[in-house]
Each structure stands twice: as structure tokens, then as C-alpha cells.
Amino acid sequence: SHGADTLKEASPFPMGVGIRDRVFELPGDWPLLTAHYEYVTPENDMKPVAVQPQPGQWRFETADRFVDFALSKKLKVVGHCLVWAKDDRTPPWFATDGDKPASREVLLARMKTHIDTVVGRYRGKIAMWDVVNEALDDGSAYLRDSSWSRACGEEFIAKAFVYAHAADPDALLIYNDYNNELDGKFEKMVRLIESLHAQQVPMHAIGLQGHYELDMVPFEALERTLAAMQRMGMKVVVSELDIDVIPRGRWWANNGAERATLSKYDPYKDGCPPEILQRQAEQYARLFQLFRKYSDTILRISFWNLHDGQSWLNDFPWKRANHPLLFDREKKPKPAYHAVMREL
Ligand code: XIL
């Protein structure tokens, strides 16, 4: 890291962070934020359910304050997200028309209004947009089953990018997903990229969310993915990086049924043991060694939240004290921070 004192100074890629709602009211967070990061993503405040909970009922107050705050601190803003291609993340009114599912025409028209309004409002103020989030299926299908894919197939993805580009031609437009470096989903992502490019759709980068678990960081799949993106001339952002220190396998295996029991499972509530913090530091170091090899392909690396106390993983998929980030609850650098700094 050549004597640099902050992530931002040390890093060959722009660094960013997803931040908690109402950071503009938390001056205690500002020094850490501005010292280390160049990009900020609002964790929730620009999501469709936040900005348009009912048709034509726009709620921009928090998002506006977020953008004004960021720009006043000379931070660049990543917009997140215009279409979250999951039914439980789409405002319910969007997908229905009376008592029937909304038709392709209705859905696309609503999507266009949404994108025109949101992207248009922040035109020139948002550097990059996560345009479509989580549209690829985790199982055997190509696209995730949703009111979007049922009514429009792949077309809603293409149209979302076309509308976003028309509303702000200078914004960099991203397709964002999780596990899209893994076997199966990776091939679907390549299919999507090829299809969008054949149609000359303005999709400029792939977002790899990067929500990893301590002992399951998919280094090989990630390297294969970065190499493939480099060969295809496709840019990548690592959009939501964190390393969960508490295994979630049992929760997933039981499909959430064990939630009640697991919510009492809080192994590190009195602090994370040093050997776990060390292991996490090693995993972060390996990740950044890999990222450095692809610094011509990676446009940004953003962590999902500023410090452990604010991580969404304290709640998801069950409540417990988690320790996934580079800074602890006192906002002090962890072993993972020093390990990343050594690799940058
Ligand atoms: C999460 C937020 O961090 C939580 O606060 C919220 O309750 C649910 O959404 N992938 C994404 C993000 O693209 O929008 C998600 O953010 C985390 C997973």
C-alpha cells in the first residue's frame, strides 16, 4: 500500500460503500466515510418500494437528502436499484392490474414511468445505476420466476437499460446479482450479456454483489468470472462486498424453518474471537490479491455497510451480532482492514 493511510489512497480501484439510511444525520460516521471511500450507495432509500410505494406516490425526501449530502462531501453516488426482479421486492401494485397480473404493456409502461422519474430526477448527479437487480434464477431456469419474467421474458431487462440510458446518457449502467460467479448462474449471466449486446442494449458493467461467507469464498469461480469478463471486454463492479463470519448453511437447508431457533444462536455477541478475525483477514487478503490482477476490468469495489455495527448481516437471515466488514463497532480498523491495505 506504499505508505498510504486510507483505502482510497492505497487502492488501484475506486472504493465505495453502501450506507445506512439517514447517514446525513450521523456526523460521527462522516470522517470514516470520507477518509476511505469515493462512492456511496444508499442501502435502501432509492429502491422501488421506498420511492414509489403506491402508483404515482413519490417519496424522494430521504433519497434527495442522501444525494445532496453525498455531493456536498464530494462523494459520487451509485443509484440502487431501478428494477428488483423479485416479486417480494417489487411494490405489489406494480405487478397487478385490477385482479389480474399486469400485462407486458402495462408493466413496461409502469417501469418506464418509474425509471424516467427516478433517473431523470437525479440526472447528472448519479454516476452509476444498478438498473436491474437479481433477475437470474438460482435453480434450473434462465430467469427468476416473477411477474416481470412471466409477462415480459428477458425483454424487461433490455428495456430497463434502454429507458435508463435515455433518462441519463452519462450514467454508467449495471446489471447486478449475487452468486453470478458460480457455476450455472455464471453461464446464464454470459447468455444475458451476449443477448443484450447483440441487441445493442446500453448495459455497461456487471455487478458481483460479493456477499461471501467465511469458509465459502468462491475464489476459483470468481477468477474464472473475472477472466471471462476481461476477455469479453465487459467491466465489473464488486457492488456489495462483505464476509459473513457465521455459517448460514443450516438456515438455508431448512428453508428458514429453523428461524426461531437460530435467532437465539448468537455465537459472537460478546465479540468476535481473534482466530476468526484472522481467518477473515486472510480471506479478504486473497480476494484483493485476485482483484488486483483484474484492476483493468474492475471499475469499483463497494462494501455493504460502513462498519460491523451497521451491517445488514446483523439481521439477515436471522438476528445475531455479525462481524463482516473492515471496521468494528467502534469504527476501528480490524485485522481485515490491515490485510486489505497490505494487498492494495
Ligand atoms: C438489503 C439491505 O441491506 C437491507 O437493509 C434490507 O432490509 C434488504 O436489502 N442484495 C441487494 C441489496 O441488492 O439491495 C440488499 O440490501 C442485500 C442483498
Automatic annotation (TrEMBL):
Similarity annotation: Belongs to the glycosyl hydrolase 10 (cellulase F) family.
Gene Ontology biological process: xylan catabolic process
The keyword Hydrolase is assigned to this record: yes
Record has Hydrolase as a keyword: yes
Organism, as annotated: Roseimicrobium gellanilyticum
TM segment ranges: none
Protein name, entry field: Beta-xylanase
All residue ranges annotated as the GH10 domain in the record: 1-343
Known EC number: 3.2.1.8
Keywords: Carbohydrate metabolism, Glycosidase, Hydrolase, Polysaccharide degradation, Xylan degradation
Positions spanned in the full protein: 60 to 403 of 405
GO molecular function: endo-1,4-beta-xylanase activity
Reactions performed catalytically: Endohydrolysis of (1->4)-beta-D-xylosidic linkages in xylans
